[in-house]
Amino acid sequence: MLESQYWWLIAFPIFFGLGWLAARVDIKHVLSETRSLPAAYFKGLNHLLNGETNRAVEVYVDIARHHAETIELQFSLGHLFRRRGELERAINMHQKLLERRELTDAQRQSAQFELAQDFMKAGLFDRAEALLNELQHSDYARQARTELLGMYELEKAWKKAIETAQQLRDDSHSYQHEIAQFYCELAEQSLTRSKKDEARAYLAQALETHRQCSRARLLRGEMAFAEQDYAAAIDEWLALESQEPHALALAMRQLMAAYDASGRGDEGTTLLLRLLKHYPELDVMDLAYERLMSLQGVDAAYEFVRERMREHPTMPGLRKVLEAHLLVAPVEQKAELEIIVRLLNDVTRDQSMYYCHHCGFKTKQYFWHCPACNEWETYPPVRGRKKASA
Ligand SMILES: [Zn+2]
Question: Where is the LapB rubredoxin metal binding domain (predicted)?
């Protein structure tokens, strides 16, 4: 009876003892953690400060391996590996993260998104696409779609690009220009396979998406020109004047050829000179000079460039005046003039390039899609026009 009444007198100290022991073990564990973790971190930091990035990375990889709780560190390392182009390591790191059961939903989605980016960079588009599609209903939906769009552009998978851009549409970005460009890309693909009706349908869709799509108009003009329907080609190209007159420069040589082929050469020349007067920046001075030279002779060409120089003085304009002057100048002046023209050629070389207004990339060829920054319609169709002067 007494034993059963006072059992707790003995039990209590035992419980306390066990608790104390458990606490000791825990504290010891925690102490060892807090002691070892910062030491290793500082070791890595020291390497970083000494510029020994590779050794720092190895230290951090070691920390990540031995301390399972350092999930954020694993994310950082994975990101770093991808940036350094060590894609196999990045993929490995993110795959290991994904295998962990204790990840929150947000962490799992983040790891999946990171892994998809690794795959994309490694050119494993199918695997990236599958992962990104899985994220369509997560917090990463928009980012995943943006990545998918970039990937489809790289792969020239224009139909999928159109679908994705349509899903991305919102108040801040209509993707109108991009979608119209994707239709133009499809039209160009159809044209290389001689599927004219298909191309025509795509161009109609481009204009339906973006009524002022210059590229679609230019392509429709080119198609009509190739079919020798010069009147239709002229109409298509002239429609550009009311929407993007400077884009006319991209078709002007063919436009003049269309006038010539339909026996309306003089009308073409008059139009060319009128357009140049209206739009002084229109990038067709060389063409106008050549045309006047061949149709009306050197005096008319010389007079044209001199008048233009007075109205719209530019360095390439000056070069043209001297080139023309060289043709009519007395023999004793020619040697000197040739040197000046050559020097002017050197200093105006930059003005014979197209400039991307998004990234500044310069190129001799005109692009609708910048090969450097992948943005659309970032090149003004005027050579030498840089962003600052836009
Ligand atoms: Zn660019």
Answer: 354-378
